[in-house]
Specification:
24 strands; FAD/NAD(P)-binding domain; binds flavin-adenine dinucleotide; single chain; Enolase-like, domain 1; binds nicotinamide-adenine-dinucleotide; 453 residues; seven-stranded mixed β-sheet
Length: 453
């Protein structure tokens, strides 16, 4: 098969790589993307999209199950779930989006090459595929967007009943019991979904509380809800091994049909030839500057391979910026707010600075128990919190925890990116009754002018 040449070569068609490719194509840059898997990367194929599909199915199931015990005067027959059918529905969404991403790249005149890429030198990559002879691609610029993979614990190797998130999202039958090792983003999102579907879930977390990167106030409503869903949470606990349906931990044994290991993700830098290029690394990640350039001229890196926060929308924003940079536009990474959403129940949203992170700031929260929309949805658990600068009242951070709070994340990041102050948000009319009024009320409360508390 013939060798190829292009101006821009992107390794990886995940959210970072495919967005970079589309924007580069739109800008008239001759672009090739290489991926050994289907376009869309972790996010579309085995991450964000499949997990949110499973979470939705579990929410629907649980809603019907719990309505009988509630005060609404509704009774419903007990629901049943055919997990294989649910997974087939999820696969259908993934397939539609795969086709969509391929179509968008084609429309932008981006060439997609299937296979595994490996650097030969700073301008050349070899691509091998099982079906075809390997070929070389030479490019003026190369973007490494190879993403991340689940961390495997040596004493809990993936395989059989020990699952990574990828296998957990493709199960044909509901496990009777599930031990989740790692109470972070993935463990709690998926653990909650399985618990809602009827699996007996135990979460084993090494730190003293779940989601240890968030402050306690934000995680407390999630911990309370997990308890209400009969999820056992074992903190300060380390797993040690699994055999014959028993997970051994330093705090005792847990009986479990399956074990889901979610203790973080590692950047995919091995096997790409990154070592031979001698790029400067930042721990296990590729070090980049404010335009996502690595230490080697002409080589950029974006997305999970460049470090935390490992989020799809960060990878996308970096990809877009890199395409603009290669097109010669003046750009740089100057984001003061990357929203992060943890799709637990209730959902946690964080954006910008946390309380006490910046000197001269104060934090004020407004409880959803005083929000009428939250009451009408039977979900008064949670709050909206604003972090604001005392000198000029600029809102520099917003955090919230509450049911369906993810939909407010854009309002939070727009407010911070646009430099809104307490008075701006307080004076903006927020539709009634909505949870968004919690943001307005938090700002009014900070000004000593709260109306509904
Ligand atoms: P990836 O999406 O990992 O894509 C990298 C691509 O590179 C892959 O397609 C891979 O096949 C390809 N590749 C790697 N090496 C090579 C090679 N040598 N040759 C050819 N191709 C190669 N983030 C959110 O923002 N919101 C969420 O709700 C969310 N939920 C998640 C749920 C789960 C279960 C998981 C696992 C992750 C979730 N994430 C979420 C994280 C999100 O998926 C990642 O941050 C995002 O996918 C990173 O994008 P990326 O482009 O950097 O890399
Ligand atoms: P994580 O870092 O969120 O959580 C890992 C958890 O495992 C931590 O709480 C850690 O203390 C614990 N842990 C580590 N070693 C342990 C051990 N030996 N025994 C018990 N507990 C242990 O990692 P994750 O959940 O695997 O997710 C990886 C990344 O994927 C996240 O950092 C996030 O960036 C991304 N992600 C994002 C979303 C989202 O945006 N909604 C969803 C899923 C994943």
């Amino acid at each position: 098969m013939s060798d190829l040449k292009c101006k821009l070569l992107i390794i990886g068609a995940g959210p970072g790589g495919y967005v970079c490719a589309i924007r580069a194509g739109q800008l008239g840059i001759d672009t090739i993307v290489v991926d050994e898997a289907k376009p869309g990367g972790t996010c579309l194929n085995v991450g964000c999209i499949p997990s949110k599909a499973l979470i939705h199915a579990a929410d629907e199931f649980h809603q019907i199950t719990s309505v009988n015990d509630g005060p609404l005067g509704i009774t419903a027959p007990a629901p049943k779930i055919d997990l294989a059918k649910t997974v087939a529905w999820k696969d259908g969404i993934v397939k539609r989006l795969n086709t969509g991403v391929s179509g968008l790249m084609k429309k932008a005149r981006v060439r997609f090459v299937s296979g595994r890429a490996r650097f030969l030198d700073g301008k050349t990559v070899s691509v091998s595929d099982t079906d075809v002879e390997s070929r070389e691609i030479t490019a003026e610029y190369i973007v490494i967007a190879s993403g991340s993979a689940p961390v495997e614990l040596p004493f809990l190797p993936f395989g059989g009943d020990i699952l990574s998130s990828t296998e957990a999202l493709a199960l044909g039958n509901l496990p009777e019991s599930l031990a989740v090792v790692g109470g972070g983003y993935i463990g709690l999102e998926l653990g909650t979904a399985f618990a809602k579907l009827g699996t007996k879930v135990t979460v084993v977390e090494a730190e003293s509380r779940i989601l240890p990167t968030y402050d306690k106030a934000l995680t407390a409503p999630v911990a309370k809800r997990l308890s209400a869903l009969n999820v056992t949470v074992m903190t300060d606990t380390k797993a040690q091994g699994f055999s014959d349906g028993v997970l051994a931990t330093d705090q005792g044994e847990i009986t479990a049909t399956k074990v889901l290991v979610t203790v973080g993700r590692r950047p995919r830098t091995q096997g790409i030839g990154v070592e031979e290029l001698s790029l400067t690394m930042d721990g296990p990640f590729i070090q980049i500057d404010e335009t996502c350039q690595s230490s080697m001229r002409g080589i950029y890196a974006i997305g999970d391979v460049t470090g935390e926060p490992m989020l799809a929308h960060r990878a996308m924003a970096q990809g877009e910026m890199v395409a603009e940079h290669i097109a010669g536009h003046t750009v740089e990474w100057d984001k003061c707010a990357i929203p992060a959403v943890c799709f637990t129940d209730p959902e946690i949203v964080t954006c910008g600075a946390l309380p006490d992170e910046i000197e001269g700031t104060k934090a004020t929260d407004f409880p959803l128990a005083a929000n009428s929309r939250a009451m009408t949805c039977e979900r008064e658990d949670g709050f909206v919190r604003v972090v604001w600068r005392e000198s000029d009242h600029a809102v520099v951070g917003i955090q919230a925890v509450g049911a369906q709070m993810s939909e407010l994340s854009a309002a939070f990041s727009i407010a911070i990116e646009m430099g809104a102050c307490l008075e701006d948000i307080g004076a903006s009319i927020h539709a009634h009754p909505t949870q968004s009024e919690g943001l307005q009320e938090a700002c009014l409360k900070a000004l000593g002018q709260a109306l509904h508390i």
